[in-house]
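Practice problem: Tubulin-specific chaperone D
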Amino acid sequence: VVPVMLKALTYDEKRGACSVGSNVRDAACYVCWAFARAYEPAELIPFISHISSALVIAAVFDRDVNCRRAASAAFQENVGRQGTFPHGIDILTAADYFAVGNRVNCYLTISVYIAGFPEYTQPMIDHLVNMKINHWDSVIRELATKALHNITPQAPEYMANVVLPRLLPLSVGSDLHTRHGAILACAEITHALCKLARENNRSVTYYFSEKSLEGLKQIHQEVCSQHKSVCTLIEKLSLSKMPFRGDPIIGGWQWLINDSLRHLTLVSSAARQYIKECAVSALAALCNEFYTNERGEADPALQDELVTQYVSELQNAEEMIRCGFSRALGALPRFLLKGRLQQVLEGLKRVTIISPEDVSFAESRRDALIAIAKVCQTVGVKGDGSQQEYVCRDNVDQIYATLLTGVTDYTTDSRGDVGGWVREAAMSSLMEVTLLLVQNEAELINATICKQIMCWLAQQSAEKIDKFRAHAGSVFLTLLHFDHPPVPHIPHREELERIFPRWEKETLNWNAASEAFPRITQLLGLPAYQYHVLLGLSVSVGGLTETTLRYSAQSLFDYMKKIQSEPGALEGFCGTLLRVFEDNLRNDRVSVPLLTMLDQMLANGCFDMFTEQDNHPFPVKLFTLCKEEIRRSKDIRKLRSSIGVFCGLIQFQGDMREKVFFQLFLLLCHPFPIIRKTTASQLYEMLLTYGDVGDPAIVEQAMAILSDTNW
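Answer key — structure tokens:
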């Protein structure tokens, strides 16, 4: 029975898109559990080492949590009843029922502890090499290779002399899964062995034979299609400081990294990000290790070729190629950027500019903004330094201008608000660059730029999409409460710190509209923020999401109620509101929800203070803007929203009433039936509400026409 049971504990077979075997492995664990109850300890002595190792392997390395827990329970039963499993109590303490529930923890932490007991070290390594690096699930393959990295210090000689020679042929084999796992395993084991050698003051090649070194160099020539795993190998060999400086293999590795960045379009979106990250990490490690001379400087010819090539690829017609090379430029070390900083920044800036040909290239704009922040962090800050080498007085305004442009990206396509990716990256990059300057030379941040940053963040914090609102709020509070040293020139700092106390920085849930909007609307009382917050609120109050609409509208109405007794504050608010409308005429992203918000505000009596004044400039200007907004429009939502605004304007006194009625009568004759019907319905309700707009008999006759006609 025991040989069959041991085989069943590792049985796993893929059929179609899923695997079978978990029920078999679970049943095998039950058999092991039953053995502990059925036999005396002396009867199981010949099989103890096999059963204990198999159960430990299943408890730590099985893909399914129910099997890991079943193996842990069987191991516990054997330890309790038999008492013959090596180091049973110690292992049970580390790998109990709850501990094995987390797969990553099992592979990367618990396995290392158990491998420290010599009885289990080699069986665990052999299992990973024989069963897991070729597993059908890529997540298991990657976890297995990382586990091998962590376990290597427990058996370095075995890894170098047995495991690595076994993996090298597999890394150039025909099976895709095995090849992927073997390449990653070679990378991780090599890195671990070199690190161990350096810790023991030995040469990095101490554990490697000449054959092994040649085998590692040959991998990329045999399997160039396996981009992500070979890029990981390049990264690990570079970090291991292998003695390949000046070797032709370096040129091959550079070609492979570039090839990976050029072929991102050919893979699925899920794999794209992973390959890009692997290639960029490999590039950074390769450059740091092999592209410097003894003085830590770059070869001018190599630097010129690499930077010029990468910058030229930023204008490629393929979006994914732009993405890859943007991130690659962001990963270049300082010695390669020295003397070329302006060329790199200009190239990345061009990627962020929206043109008719690449309006949908939101991902490339996002990656360029991320790269700009990375480049700034790499080169550092020196106020009076050269703009070719540092972030300095000559280029800081250009950097900020590029990043601030990203916050205004509201591009939409079939995927939705793709501009949100750009805005999110721009906000993160603004924070990183600002904190970099603050901690080095804060005087480079002028008051105008700081005001722009905080105002744009406040606007994003008032908008409708929870994810981006939360990110903006987090960045806003980070800059506000940063004190090593504080960010200079933040407008209304004291008032902001009262609205957003420091102790709430981590607890305030910006994702929850019920928490975010009551706070952010308080910024309407601060002149520097009023315009941008009102612009953000317009989109939320006039939006379609019920929760966002409810809490944003209620917060706005609460603020309006508070300033009803302050004529100056109300006049200032109305002036800002008209400016928002005027600046966004025919911009449907803002103007349509703004009309809806105005309809609600008029219905809620937010402007009652002006209703008794003849020809007050606010309703006159508002009428003119609404009329201009809907001129020649065929947008039904916009037209219906404007009807509510026109009906709300009837409550104001003066000559404008006649113009408003005339506009409503035109809408009663609109070509669209839904507009005629909506106008008639809302006009009827308006006449019921404001019965004093004309002679009672005429009003009654008009209401009869409105109600009796089939509009």
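Discussion: The two ends are 85 Å apart (CA to CA). Students who identified this feature from the tokens alone can consider the problem solved.
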